Amino acid sequence: MSEVKMPIDVVISWVDGEDPVHKAKRRSYSKAGELKKDDVAGAARYRSTGEIFYCIASILRFAPWVNKIYIVTDAQNPHVEEFLQRNFPDNRIPIEIVDHKVIFRGYEQYLPTFNSLAICTMLWRIPGLSDRFLYFNDDVFLTAPATADTWFEGEDTIIYADRFPAGWAQFLRWCKHLGRKHKKFGHKDPMLNSAGILKSGHFYLFPHAPVPMRRDWYEKFYADHPDILDHNIRHRFRDPSQYSAPTLFYVSAHRSGNLVVRSPKNTTLFLKPSVDKAGGYMARKLSEADSNKEMIFGCVNSLGETTIEEQQMFHQWISKLLDIQI
Q1: What's the pLDDT tens digit per position in 139-176?
Q2: 8-322 has which CATH code?
Q3: Where are the alpha helices (DSSP H) in the chain?
């Protein structure tokens, strides 16, 4: 394990979408039809089936050098204490719950928010956050030991991504929207919007994995461009005009010569069992993961949308990988 030369915190965004209070709040602020669109405010975006326990366990197991873990929520608490006591009784990494009201201080008019793009834009405002930090969605986890220089090396930020031409992405977006009433807003779209803001001919297409970010960069950038900040956080639900805050940083870091881009090939296990029509998806993907020696990241997307059998299969697999009991 490499020596840690700088403090690196982890920030995890988490929501329990089955909480009746949160459900009622979403309904009261949503517009007609929004709650039925998975890319905007569908229930799958907020459903929690215990993924955050795996997320935290993977950090404690494979990145014990992390300085602190922050869990960002909307007046909720995942109550990880019992889980930690059972599996990591000697844990020394502090875990702190941070409410949306803290990171949106001064912008309370945009709360409540149900928008991951808006929330990600404000993570750098967590009090006491280290300059270099990692952002995990609660369904993201590590699958193997990682060191600080997996993501940071001196002044350089390391990402696992493919350079993607903005013009080609624009053409693909046009094809995707052709003849459709609802123009679906996907994983690549906010990255393309970031390239447009910075007038870049490319962006970096990164998988669902831990995202390295720089607090000090965002502080300066948004001080110089408060209108860009305001635009991204004013939408309570995802909006097609929004951008990816990490992509803004990566394009800028590339221009300053402080971005190292590594191939994402074989690094990430991405599970989306809800797309399985023929059956056997989970068994096949987990078997592939077991034989992949280069994999270091994982993401299980919409686990609650698949069968109980497939959910149990995943729970058993990751519990064994992380050597934990749920």
Answers
A1: 999 999 999 999 999 999 999 999 999 999 999 888 88
A2: 3.90.550
A3: 20-29, 51-62, 81-87, 100-103, 116-121, 166-177, 189-197, 215-224, 226-233, 245-255, 281-290, 308-322
